[in-house]
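It is worth pausing here to work through a concrete case rather than discussing structure prediction in the abstract. The textbook approach is simple: state the sequence, then state the predicted structure, then interpret. We follow exactly that order.
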Amino acid sequence: MSARIKWMRYYKIKNTDFVFFLLTLFLIGFIFGINYSPIKVVKEEVLRYKMPNLTTITEERMVEMLVPAADDQGNGAVAKLVTRVRPAVSPGYGMMMVGINDVLAQYDTQLSARIAAKAAEEYTGMDLADFDIIYTIEVNATVIEGPSAGAAMAISVVAALQDSEINKSVMITGTIDDEGKIGVAGAIPEKISAAKENDITLFLVSSDLPPQSTVKSEKSCNKINKIEYCEINYVPKETDLSEEFGIELKMITELEDALDYFLI
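Step two, the predicted structure:
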């Protein structure tokens, strides 16, 4: 074999190795660029600014807060919500469960809990599939209206993720969607009354809540041929719940609004 042929084969091999080296270098740069692109860096910086207390969770965190409820008779009550967040045994396969008085909650409450966790995930930017989230509700009431605890559930998850304390003088009732919008709940006067009895000074409700009203009786009389005829009419009267119960009432729209009052 001539020296020229040997040199050409050697050159071809070296040229192929060089091309392979360039392709490998390109792939490494591409992967690096995706993971550390300006968009991702900016997003991480925004999250760090928005939630400075957000830290890596290596063990279980527990948050307790009071939530208003209503029994099947329409009476107001106060429940204790205990939320536990811990790393899942298998990342990506986290468990979620709601128990009321040590009994598995009904479907609507389970669904509300999942939506609440999704809202917390959207707010924090964390993947909650890597965590177990266990809600326990303790209350002396026959039936709990599950969806109305959604906002409180979302707040408790965010508090656990940020390792924040809960302001015990604040209470909230309201549903929540997976983007963090607070919705209307029922039995507002009854819940406010129960909150007042438990030394709550600030009560949060959805800004979509319609004006509350009571029925007032009004007596009207007319004289016909010197004879007085009277009748009682019942008319609705708008009520100032804050003044009626002696508790501050605030209207909020988003999860972020509620967190401003709850997190310490």
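Step three, interpretation. The longest helix spans residues 3-35. The chain is about 40% helix and 30% strand.
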